[in-house]
Write a structure and sequence with these properties.
361 residues, mainly alpha, 74% helix, 2% strand, transmembrane helix, transport
């Protein structure tokens, strides 16, 4: 069996499924739901006709370019996962159908359903790939067939479970905003810097509302924090690559000296409860944006999208000046200031030394 799994490149491991597949799922979400949301927002707010025009009507539903991209989130996630699992072409292409089905049947918890179903059907497809002389028929049939079966049996259950967990976190945050603000902000922020996907976690749990706002604050604290405290080592390029890219770039340095993580994490533990208790900072945009931080400014864009949604639905009269002030403070100013202050203390104590946060060129 071990020889067969090795030959088929089926690696049952936490890294393959918990890191590679999860990170790929987030990329699939980014290239579909997230981009679709951004396109819709640009089209509506800037009056770009090409982005607000209906490009297709399917089953009586009108789709703009952005809406079409968002509708393809299931196939995008599934194929991204299959790609991360190094699936052969016929398996990879078959996952388009599987992803659509599992995401649709998973409901609001579709992303987590896609993760599980895509992994199972991909590995089954890889197991039968090129084992027969009619591979072009057998591999797609088995991959899609198993994917449909798992989607029907597992996706609704996984989707409901994910939403229950997400709802529990959001309920607890409303009930205990101070402690949950610290917990959610710190943990999601840490997940963003680790080689796993905080965006996929937030999407899978449907993390929005006050908990989503705390998550945005925590992720921004990590990215902005590392960007500013490592500026003397990495300059403007490091500021941009970490502040608008990812704080994951510091993971190698964190392994060498874990104490460089203190300033950004400290900042997230302050901005989190400020978001939940003082500013009542919510993210009611797509749940995936709760775990993106300042990466491409997706976190703030998600919050802004939530504001517009609330205005359109009548839950909010208008986007206020205080909304913008809270966004600037929690996503940019406070993370930078708090991280710099904590970093100065850590350097004075000798915990952080020059060169500890130098990024590889």
């Amino acid at each position: 069996m071990q020889a067969f799994l090795k030959r088929k490149n089926i690696e049952i491991s936490l890294k393959r499924y918990g890191i590679d597949a999860l990170s790929a799922m987030a990329q699939g979400l980014f290239c579909s739901l997230l981009i679709g949301t951004i396109l819709n927002t640009i089209g509506q707010r800037l009056g770009v006709t090409a982005l607000t025009r209906v490009v297709a009507t399917i089953g009586g539903v009108d789709y703009t370019v952005g809406a079409m991209a968002s509708a393809m989130s299931g196939p995008a996630m599934a194929t991204a996962i299959a790609y991360a699992l190094q699936a052969p072409p016929l398996v990879l292409f078959s996952l388009i159908t599987v992803g659509f089905a599992s995401n649709a049947l998973g409901g609001a918890g579709g992303p987590l359903a896609v993760l599980f179903v895509a992994i199972l059907s991909t590995e089954i497809g890889k197991a039968v790939s090129k084992e027969t002389k009619v591979d072009i028929l057998v591999t797609p049939l088995v991959t899609i067939g198993s994917g449909m079966l798992f989607s029907a049996l597992l996706a609704p259950l996984i989707g409901k479970a994910a939403i229950q967990v997400g709802s529990l976190i959001m309920w607890a945050t409303e009930l205990q905003p101070f402690f949950m603000g610290i917990l959610v902000s710190a943990l999601v922020g840490i997940a963003l810097t680790l080689p796993i996907s905080s965006a996929a976690i937030c999407a899978a749990l449907g993390l929005t509302g006050l908990a989503g706002g705390a998550a945005v604050a925590g992720c921004c604290a990590q990215m902005v924090g590392f960007a500013v405290i490592s500026f003397q080592e990495n300059g403007v390029s490091g500021l941009v690559s970490q502040g608008l890219g990812t704080s994951m770039l510091q993971m190698g340095n964190i392994v060498k000296n874990p104490r460089i993580w203190i300033p950004a994490t400290f900042a997230s533990m302050i901005t989190g409860p400020l978001a939940t208790c003082i500013f009542r900072f919510e993210n009611n945009g797509p749940a995936v944006t709760s775990g993106m931080g300042t990466c491409g400014l997706v976190g703030p864009i998600g919050v802004y999208t939530g504001w517009l949604k609330a205005v359109e639905e009548g839950g909010k009269s208008a986007v206020s000046a205080m909304d913008w002030i809270s966004l600037l403070l929690l996503c940019f100013i406070l993370p930078a200031v708090l991280s710099l202050l904590c970093s100065a203390f850590c350097r004075k104590m000798g915990w952080i030394k020059p060169g500890d946060m130098k990024l590889a060129s």
